[in-house]
Specification:
Elements lengths: L49 H21 L12 H4 L2 H23 L17
């Protein structure tokens, strides 16, 4: 079932020789001071810029390396327990340090303020 859309009645044509009057509600007006001047408002900077994304990528790479170093240490025979492979320095200590470092880099990347864009310095009469 389709909804019926309301329509506006067109004002009746004015009698010849009389000016047509309109209601104030018929005209759409803008509040004072909001007229378009052709200039755009300055863009707000993003919370994260290119430098932050580099840190985010580095943090993800460090965490991925840490998790990759944790993998393994299993045995082909389920009845054999290989303690040296499972509890090695690489799997227990180094990989954990890398994962925690990766998380620290991620937190830094998110909290770091974006650097403001540099504008070219304009020459004035005093600079010459």
């Amino acid at each position: 079932m389709s909804k019926k859309t309301p329509y506006k009645k067109k004002p009746a044509p004015a009698a010849p020789g009389k000016p047509q009057t309109t209601k104030a509600a018929d005209h759409k007006t803008t509040p004072a001071g909001t007229e378009k001047t052709g200039k755009q408002a300055p863009a707000k900077p993003f919370a994260i810029d290119r430098g932050n994304y580099k840190y985010i990528g580095a943090g993800l790479a460090i965490m991925t390396l840490g998790f990759a170093l944790m993998v393994g240490g299993g045995s082909k025979d389920p009845n054999v327990f290989n303690e040296e492979a499972l509890f090695s320095f690489t799997r227990i200590t180094l990989s954990t340090i890398l994962v925690v470092t990766g998380f620290a880099v991620e937190i830094y990347a998110i909290m770091k303020k974006p650097t403001p864009k540099r504008t070219p310095k304009t020459l004035t009469n005093d600079d010459e």
